[in-house]
Specification:
single chain; 198 residues; alpha/beta; Rossmann fold; five-stranded parallel beta sheet; 54% helix
Length: 198
Amino acid sequence: MSTKGFFIVIEGIDGTGKSTQARRLGDWLVSRGREVVLSREPTDGPWGTKLRESAATGRLSPEAELEYFLKDRRQHVEELIAPSLAAGKVVILDRYYFSTMAYQGARGIDPQEIRRKNEAFAPQPDLLLIIDLDVDSALTRIGARGDTANEFEKRENLERCREIFLSLGEEPFARVVPSHGTLDEVASELRKVVSEMI
């Protein structure tokens, strides 16, 4: 197993189990002797906190939302992602700029323009894992965990977001992993993909 830094991003619409799978993948890599940094976006920094609050209180304009995401991500890259990779750690992110492409893209901003703005400063991951689930199942899961769908989780929005995520599956560094199976089955599939690359 290599000792150079490795950057994994886990993406997908809400309800696909990204956060759970990110933790499980991190635990597995630690058990294999890797130093792992597990993080998420939006972060808990000042810009990320504003974004999380807006999901419950009413979304910002598309332009303001994108600006907050860019500021939050720039700080994240500078303070955590880049130093961790330079130190040879495995960085696992629960959401990254691909989510911005999907969720702000669904609001009418060109996803490729969003990508260009992000890749001006944000490193491309070594591996993008897109956990895929149909929207009906995702909404059922959101409801089952006791949550009410927030402004980011409306059906029409999620349909468009899913389309954008699946279009990213054509990237050479991306893998689409269906999440209809059990947590263990999805975790096993993710480990298989990661073990081929790391």
